[in-house]
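Our consortium's second objective concerns turning raw sequence data into structural hypotheses that experimental partners can test. To show how far this objective has progressed, the report includes one record in full. It was chosen at random from the queue rather than selected for favorable results. The single chain below, 299 residues long, was entered without modification.
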Amino acid sequence: MRIVNMGEWPLDRADERRHDPGGEPLWNESWYYDFVSEDGRTGGYVRLGLYPGWNRAWYWACLVTAGGDRVTVIDHEAALPARDLGVAGPGYTAGHRAPDPFERAEIHLDSAELTLDLEFRTAAGVYGYAITPRYEIPCEVTGTIGGVPFHGHGERDHSWGVRDWWSLSWLWSSARLDDGTYLHGMRANLGMELPWPAFLAGEGGLAHVEGFSAATAFDGDRPVRTVLSFPGCATTVRPITFAPVTLTSPEGAVAEFPRALCAYETEDGRTGHGWTEWHQPPGWREHAWEPRVQREGAG
């Protein structure tokens, strides 16, 4: 398995497991699992976040359809797992494991609202970030949703370190195109330019790309269109169905996390589907420096 590691820490198979927590209150460790069906009509994501400084875990599971249906299981008060990555709360139990590190992961959810049994098989390598301990893995996704067979594609990631949801805005996006290309790009509003985490992956493997940027059009606070600028692969992203989460800090600050199943189209006519998030902490408009595209319908 090829690992493209942009950071100064070497990734190895042990990094698929939990890490020793830092002492900061906002230190967290999280695992995301995104998936979209082959036809783009159904998509979802699961996130498990461990917050040892708060003695709790966050668990999110969301399933949406292109027709606007949405089912969610959101728990911000789950008990920290003792050893494995199993969590439980009112009306649900969930498990997450990587039996073949960097090659295969499995998730399970059993609740009255939603049941998931999905396997994520690595499709094109592992991508490690340069600016924070984190890696992304494009995947083929199979299994069942509500007992119905599922086949699609997605991305999973794992990160650990301090994350302040209430002071920093960012954009994160990943998708698979109809020619088999996986794409990923992320940028945060840090007030400076950095070599942002971005890659393109396909049959030739996974490769970091330089010069990634993004610009978003909003209707009020709602993102309606984003242009992802990969060198030679400018891609327009349009939300189909949102599955947002509201995040309240221990001090009462509120951040909004609009995350959506999206349609993607490149300037050369390729299309695909994936997930994009536009994180909005308090005052995000005043602090955001990300360039904006014109409002929808304005040009």
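The partners drew two points from this record. Residues 284-287 form the longest helix (4 residues). The two ends are 45 Å apart (CA to CA). Both points have been shared with the crystallography group to help prioritize constructs.
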